[in-house]
Fold these 2 entries.
Entry 1:
Amino acid sequence: MTGPVWRRCEAPGRWQAVPVHHYKPEGTAPFRDVTRQLLFAHPELACEWRYFEIGPGGHTTLERHAHVHAVMILHGQGACLVGQDVRAVRSHDLVEIPAWTWHQFRATEATSLGFLCLVNAERDRPSLPTDDDMATLRRDPKVAAFIRC
Ligand code: MN
């Protein structure tokens, strides 16, 4: 018998009966030291609540797509690129990733970065930057210094 979801937090970023997955299959996109967990999905809600954790010095994929993200930092420290803006992020910061906006999250070299990501259950696949996209992004020195591929 199953009732409503009730999952104890067992440790920071770990919940009862929530498996920790690889972020993406190795070799499909550039990233470093990231895990993914699906925390909550429900047929009555058209969204999913995921949790990602980036190890020290790690980063998510530089990507963009039609769907939107709402990201809430849960613990750790890092920085993110959203469009042409690079900003430091820490616990409880809230970040919107608008549609078709380049984005990437990085943990600092000393700390991991854990964050919730709210997203449409049905969504398009992320696009990766072409060489032309990279050249455009790198015109801004701040962005050039931030991105990892
Ligand atoms: Mn994304």
Entry 2:
Amino acid sequence: MKLSLVISTSDAAFDALAFKGDLENGMKMAKNIGYDAVEIAVRDPKVVDPEKINSLKKEIGLDISAIGTGQAYLAEKFSLTSEDEKLRSGAIERLKEHVELSSNIGGLVIIGLIRGMVGSRKKENVVDMFVEGVREVAEYAKRFGVKLVIEPLNRYESDFLNTADETAQIIESISMDNVGLLLDTFHMNIEERNIEGSIRKHKDILMHFHVADSNRWAPGYGHIDFRSIFKTLFEIGYDGYISVECMPLPGGTEFSSKKAYEYLSKILNGR
Ligand code: LER
Ligand code: MN
């Protein structure tokens, strides 16, 4: 298992230069700490230069573990289940662009907030729209050898797909081998009855793993039992990334990223 760090970048559309600056600084910081990869959020792949990212990857010696897509929902309301046809087809087209970016720079494409919300609608109808949308993107992704991961989010962030079971059921109905599950300890701590049990139950589709402690501080500063979780991940033979996605606490981005790395690598090395 390799360690990755989610790095924050400013909105690429409005300030492409700042995005590259942030990216370069974030990648250098992650490398200096010891991480193997970074995970980035990209609102619009059209304004990202894959050649530049690839040269940074090479120069710094770091991989891209995953690409987050939620900014397209937050800033532009693109959603795979929007009632507005333009926003729904826009989400599909945008995700296909994320797929192309991924085929260029690497990383799984994350389906988080871009799933949209159920609201007052009938859940079955929303599920059907979602399955259809993800399938279209997944078929496109298959041509590029790219994988998509769907992430259950806790109830305070979304009213659609909160648990590993619900999400796994949808992944089963999509039934494509390039669509898998992303589990995040912060969300699991709120929604799962038993974190280790859910990991074990869905081991066959688990493709990516986010870690933050119970308070979304760096692992080690809350009450999640990472020793037990990592033992479970070892036992199921998980070989994807462990990606640190926490608030810059304690002590700011660099300090918390360093503390997270030290704490997790100690556990991974059995100390
Ligand atoms: C994204 O990976 C995530 O966990 C969300 O909570 C971010 O909104
Ligand atoms: Mn997450």
